[in-house]
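One-letter codes give the sequence; each number marks local geometry. A record appears below:


***
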Amino acid sequence: MRKLQMGAAALALSTSVASAQGVEVLHWWTSGGEAAALNVLKQDLEGQGVSWTDMPVAGGGGSDAMTVLRARVTAGDPPTAVQMLGFAIQDWAAEGALANLDTLADEQGWEAVVPEALQRFARYDGHWVAAPVNVHSTNWVWANTALMEELGISQPTTWDEFVAAMQAAQDAGYTALAHGGQAWQDATVFESMVMGVGGPEFYQASMVDLDPEALGSDQMVEAFQRMETLRGFVDDNFSGRDWNLASAMVINGEALFQIMGDWAKGEFVNAGQTAGQEFQCFRVPGTEGTVTFNSDEFAMFNVSDPAAQEAQLAMASAVMSPEFQIAFNLVKGSVPARTDIPSDQFDACGQMGMAQLAAASAGGTLFGSMAHGHANPPSVQNAMYDVITAHFNGEYDAETAAAELVTAVEIAQ
């Protein structure tokens, strides 16, 4: 892998950054809560004299942005910084496209404060190639407090209680489950069904190890059956709906629940709501004690201009600073990518998330999210997407879907 030669002078950011040409940042943070969080980083860098050129690509849970990125790189014009997830970082690093951040990482002690599960993706061949911004976990339920109280619903702790709560909401004329019919959203819900049915060992075997027996098992059939149950609680207009519009349904009291990663919390916060008051957060019933995660990271692409290199270092340094990690994640809904950040400034959901992340990491129940590129490579992820979405839209029954999943994964590997 090609390395950038970064000397000590390049790290003297206070004297050299003012002359930097700035960063062009490709990302898919376009919802209200996401844009507010990204603005924290933009203002931080502009305060250092680093200009910011925004390149947002909405939709697809990041897949559309990766399509744009591939076109830019093929044309010989890569952005200086790109929001990336999991295996996509590793793929670009393997192509020799990413800058080496070792000098900065060593100086600032990243290895000691970034969890090993995140370093698995932020480093390639022993070298730092990306700066992790946060840790999101995906097995969350978001609930409207007023509706729960109106319907006399307490927090469900089992699958049966969860179904009963949704039935009560539907019977009262509400949408029980806010959902957007996009492949990545279907997969986000599905991975929690897999974890809820079979627990950590089954999730590891099926979603990470891709064991054909696990993929085609009775437990997988049950996971698909649970998806069929959920499909019965989704409104008729779900197809193509963006995730943040589904969040808005819960925020506005139109829907009771949403199963979504904790970036959804950013939408509640952006709407002026408070965790534990207007909205509730809890793990998808059956997945308690486990955390499925993804981590947004900024990968820096190889650039030849020394000023652009300095701007990249300034951005990576800003991303990893404790002050930024707190400010950004308070707005974004996620938790910091550093383990040395105190939780006292975070709300009830944030503190819960930080404590559960630490416990899962220590207890061996922290797993990469299949839906968000942290369990297997994009080819396998997309193959799973196709089967999951086809099933959710009624093309397969549960038994057929499990069999199709085995075949799709086999072909994709």
